[in-house]
Amino acid sequence: MGIQDTHNEPRWRRLPEERPRQILHAAREVFGEHGLAASRLDDIARRAGLSKGTIYLYFSNKEELFREVVRYTIVSQIEEGERLYSARTSSVAETLTQFMRQYWTFVRSPEFAPIFRLIHAEIHNFPDLARFYGEEVVARGQRLISGMIARGIESGEFRPLDPEVAARMLTAPFVMHGLWCTHRECFASVAKKTDEQVLDELIQFYLYAIQPRGSASSSQRA
Questions:
Q1: By percentage, how much of the chain surpasses pLDDT 90?
Q2: 0.90 cut: is pTM over it?
Q3: Residue by residue, what is the 3-state secondary structure of the chain?
Q4: How many angstroms separate the CA atoms of 68 and 58, rounded?
Q5: Are residues 17 and 65 in contact, defined by beta-carbon separation less than 8 angstroms?
Q6: How far apart are the C-alpha atoms of 152 and 210, rounded to whole Å?
Q7: From residue 65, how far is each of 4, 33, 78, 98, 218 by CA, in Å?
Q8: 55-94: per-residue pLDDT in tens?
Q9: pLDDT digits over 191-220, tens only?
């Protein structure tokens, strides 16, 4: 998951077909360190070991480069979840549990954190990028989860409830607990637990909340 790190390779050995990935990797680092508004293409080119003109061969401006960073880093993970769901051979509950584990891994990854900070700190200053993120990341991700919930309701695995609300109730605690686990010194409730223990608690809590009332706990089988 994420972009392979070629930062330590000699720049002259990097092949032309690797340059878009080099640029995306460098852009993600620079955006994460300086913020979207303060980042310059000159800084990104220097980090990538390329000329600024080379960036323009692949990306028309900084905003388009940010879009591609989001697509490479986050939208690709949504696409992976869509493939997982479409190719499922097990129950919806088991597929959803697998998705939650993959989602947790991504939320805890170094690729997610800088994008998350940028979205919440600066995206309101870039209306076009805010709409892009809302459509390609938030809405698409919620459709994936709510679709799984709706299918589970149809099959009787989950109780009747609003799938869109259930989708929101999944993403929010996963993101927040992921952040808490990154800063355990600030959150006593997770300070003495491993990532896997926190994840198991989240999965058990969520599956119990959506399972049919009176059924055996799906969370105990996950």
A1: 71
A2: no
A3: CCCCCCCCCCHHHCCHHHHHHHHHHHHHHHHHHHCCCCCCHHHHHHHHCCCHHHHHHHCCCHHHHHHHHHHHHHHHHHHHHHHHHHCCCCCHHHHHHHHHHHHHHHHCCCCHHHHHHHHHHHHHHCHHHHHHHHHHHHHHHHHHHHHHHHHHHHHCCCCCCCHHHHHHHHHHHHHHHHHHHHCHHHCHHHHCCCHHHHHHHHHHHHHHHHCCCCCCCHHHHC
A4: 10
A5: no
A6: 9
A7: 18, 16, 19, 31, 43
A8: 999 999 999 999 999 999 999 999 999 998 998 888 999 9
A9: 788 999 999 999 999 999 999 987 654 444
* 108, pLDDT greater than 70: yes
Q: Quote the pLDDT of residue 16.
A: 62
Let me know: does 176 contact 190? Beta carbons within 8 Å: no
* CA dist 181 → 24, 173, 189, 194 (Å): 27, 12, 10, 8
- Nearest one of 103, 85, 117 to 1, comparing CA atoms: 103
